[in-house]
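We were asked to recover a plausible sequence for a given structure. The inputs and outputs are reproduced exactly as logged, with field labels preserved.

PROBLEM: sequence recovery
POSITIONS: 305
GIVEN STRUCTURE:
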């Protein structure tokens, strides 16, 4: 709010506060509608089972961007959000899929100018001689400008210790994420224990990532929901018996692996795809079949090996 200070003829100070013109600022109509500003986000993430905290964080980021724009329009101070992120989670918990989705969504929200997604691993960043790594990493960051740079198994950058070129890649990433944080989003991903160890070796790194996402292992019931949804997307359906068989298997499997090597939703996807093939082999031997038969995956079709 601006103010105007003047002395009146009695020597008293008059402070006139000029009410800011009460502007009505419109929503980003392309992205949302005013009845439910989060509708688009909810729709984009509706196919992701669970992940409530992630959905909440994306809503916060979006609300902040929108309100910042409106503050800017009336001349109030705004702050750029730093959106670099750490994703920690076991195999198949959705890290890569979510990162891709965020690239699209942030483009639609006008946070990223291009919204493309670049997936990199150690070999894409680390070079073979002194200076090579910084150059390779810089080139990759250049390519990622306007989009998301997703570094999978980020802890492998710290593999060889102090003398390894991986360290140089980390330093280069850090330097550029500070310089150019408005233009691209860096996401480092990996398994939880390895990521924690990696961060402990690089003090100061964690604080540069204001958003840390823990991708929890899915419960058996969530995995069943994912299976039903994956089947439905493909216009198949699990019979009740097939679902019970899957539930029994998942309970045993999760106990056996203590959640460590089990590949969560990826295991479900592979299982559904294998079962669809088995279903096809069963049906092809028959001469005629109903629409229902073409859709139903039975207990015997369900295969885990
Ligand atoms: N919450 C979820 N709801 C539905 N499908 C999911 C969910 N999470 C993951 N998936 C599916 O599981 C599969 C594996 O996910 P993704 O590749 O993203 O896992 P990841 O965490 O990157 O695994 P990795 O660490 O092994 O690279 C994908 O097909 C993805 O669509
Ligand atoms: Mg992945």
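RECOVERED SEQUENCE:
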């Amino acid at each position: 709010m601006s103010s105007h200070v003047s002395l009146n003829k009695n020597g008293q100070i008059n402070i006139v506060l000029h009410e800011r013109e009460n502007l009505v600022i419109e929503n980003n109509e392309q992205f949302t509608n005013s009845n439910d500003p989060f509708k688009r986000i909810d729709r984009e993430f509706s196919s992701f089972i669970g992940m409530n905290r992630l959905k909440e964080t994306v809503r916060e980021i979006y609300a902040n961007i929108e309100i910042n724009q409106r503050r800017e329009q009336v001349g109030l101070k705004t702050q750029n959000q730093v959106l670099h992120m750490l994703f920690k989670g076991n195999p198949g918990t959705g890290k890569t899929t979510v990162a891709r989705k965020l690239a699209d969504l942030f483009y639609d929200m006008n946070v990223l100018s291009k919204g493309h997604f670049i997936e990199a691993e150690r070999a894409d960043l680390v070079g073979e001689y002194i200076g090579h790594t910084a150059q390779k990493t810089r080139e990759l960051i250049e390519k990622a400008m306007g989009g998301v740079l997703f570094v999978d198994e980020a802890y492998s950058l710290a593999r060889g210790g102090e003398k390894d070129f991986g360290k140089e890649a980390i330093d280069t990433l850090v330097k550029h994420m500070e310089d150019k944080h408005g233009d691209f989003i860096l996401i480092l991903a990996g398994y939880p224990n390895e990521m924690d160890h990696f961060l402990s070796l690089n003090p100061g790194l964690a604080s540069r990532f204001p958003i840390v996402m823990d991708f929890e292992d899915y419960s058996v019931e969530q995995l069943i929901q994912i299976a039903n949804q994956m089947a439905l997307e493909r216009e198949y359906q699990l019979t009740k018996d097939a679902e019970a068989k899957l539930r029994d298997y998942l309970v045993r499997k999760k106990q056996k692996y203590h959640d460590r090597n089990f590949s969560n939703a990826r295991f479900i996807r592979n299982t559904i795809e294998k079962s669809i093939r088995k279903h096809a082999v069963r049906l092809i031997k028959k001469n005629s079949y109903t629409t229902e038969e073409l859709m139903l995956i039975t207990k015997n079709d369900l295969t885990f090996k």
